[in-house]
Q: What sequence folds into this?
């Protein structure tokens, strides 16, 4: 199948592009490269542009009348920034996404897969896995923009007789096992990114943001999903959507199904990396939740998908990718 992939130069989008190519599909990538690195689009069918620009969207749908689905990854994803600049997040993640969706519907491309997030849930650190109908409580403009677009997508699919799906990702870790993509930010804010940078810089202090949450060791709980398992969920979702003959909208959790606390994660990282990192406890980070983990039974049942890669594998792949990416960036910077 030929698929329009927005945000295909980003961490997850580029990894899904590789999974699509491996499975024999034909991705067409649209990305502004405002965040994703240019190295990620080498060798791909690529359009540089904005998802809110209907001219470029018209051109893509005109150039590729055989597009069968849209996979929509392009978004702003920084939770803290979204608290400071909420209108920017609603503009990028909600209104521009609607321009994209309407263009797809107008072009007759009526399968639309959307990257949503576990951050939409009310996550109190309980021992229960979150189901798709568990209560929602988006604490940031980022999470709210994602939940609002889920509703826009559901209603638009019904109006047009189209098929839509929102995959609610939990916390992606790791890299493409063939090392074609991985996390690329110089100054990551997320847990594994911080630990990986410390490790490759020879060690240092790692601060856990709070240990007074209602979890088994007081540190927040998350569900870490290997990005390659996440990519495979997209392939399964695409096949499922392609087989549907009538309008439908689905929401699906994509996580590992296991809750791991930040302290447990840091401990596992130290064991895998052997890096001389000292773990200290600092203050809570604003906007953080106690967290939870996914009940993935719906994705298993409906998509026939299940995760296979371990936490340790995610950490190992992240460390390997970091070495490769640093070497590549240094080389290209030196060459310029
Ligand atoms: N990374 C996570 O932890 C996580 C968790 C849950 C959900 N998600 C969702 O997954 C998707 C991909 O996340 P990621 O980690 O790969 O992020 P990323 O920042 O690496 O990738 C996003 C890509 O979209 C592009 N982009 C941004 N705005 C654009 C616009 N208006 N027009 C065209 N291109 C634009 C960027 O240049 C970038 O290449 C996002 O929708 C995000 O909300 C991510
Ligand atoms: O130096 C650090 C960095 C993070 N953490 C903690 O680690 C946990 C995970 O944080 P992070 O890796 O930043 O992920 P989340 O805040 O859970 O958010 C991620 O996961 C969401 C899905 O659950 C996505 O929507 C977001 O885009 C993505 O950043 C949180 O409790 C943080 O407080 C620390 O203790 N120290």
A:
């Amino acid at each position: 199948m030929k698929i329009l992939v927005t945000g295909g130069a980003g961490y997850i989008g580029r990894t899904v592009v590789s999974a699509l190519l491996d499975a024999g599909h034909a991705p067409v990538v649209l990305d502004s490269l405002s965040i994703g690195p240019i190295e990620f689009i080498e060798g791909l069918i690529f359009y540089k542009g904005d998802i809110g620009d209907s001219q470029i969207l018209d051109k893509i749908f005109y150039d590729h009348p055989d597009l069968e689905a849209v996979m929509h990854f392009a978004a702003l994803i920084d939770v803290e920034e979204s608290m400071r600049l909420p209108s920017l997040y609603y503009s990028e993640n909600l209104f521009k996404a609607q321009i994209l969706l309407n263009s797809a519907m107008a072009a007759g491309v009526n399968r639309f897969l959307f990257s949503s997030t576990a951050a939409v849930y009310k996550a109190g650190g309980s021992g229960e896995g979150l189901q798709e109908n568990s209560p929602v409580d988006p604490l940031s403009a980022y999470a709210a923009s994602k939940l609002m677009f889920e509703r826009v997508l559901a209603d638009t699919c019904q109006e047009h007789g189209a098929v839509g799906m929102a995959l609610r990702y939990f916390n992606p870790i790791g890299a493409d096992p063939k090392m074609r993509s991985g996390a690329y930010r110089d100054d990551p804010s997320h847990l594994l990114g911080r630990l990986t940078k410390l490790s490759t810089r020879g060690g240092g202090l790692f601060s856990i943001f709070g240990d007074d949450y209602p979890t088994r060791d007081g540190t927040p709980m998350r569900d870490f999903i290997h990005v390659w398992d996440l990519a495979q969920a997209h392939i399964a979702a695409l096949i499922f959507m392609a087989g549907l003959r009538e309008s439908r909208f689905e929401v699906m959790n994509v996580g590992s199904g296991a809750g791991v606390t930040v302290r447990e994660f840091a401990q596992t990282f130290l064991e895998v990396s052997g890096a001389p990192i000292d773990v200290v406890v600092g203050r809570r980070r604003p906007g953080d939740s106690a967290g939870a983990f996914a009940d993935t039974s719906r994705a298993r049942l409906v998509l026939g998908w299940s995760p296979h890669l371990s936490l340790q594998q995610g950490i190992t792949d992240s460390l390997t990718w970091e070495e490769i990416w640093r070497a590549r960036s240094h080389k290209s910077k030196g060459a310029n």
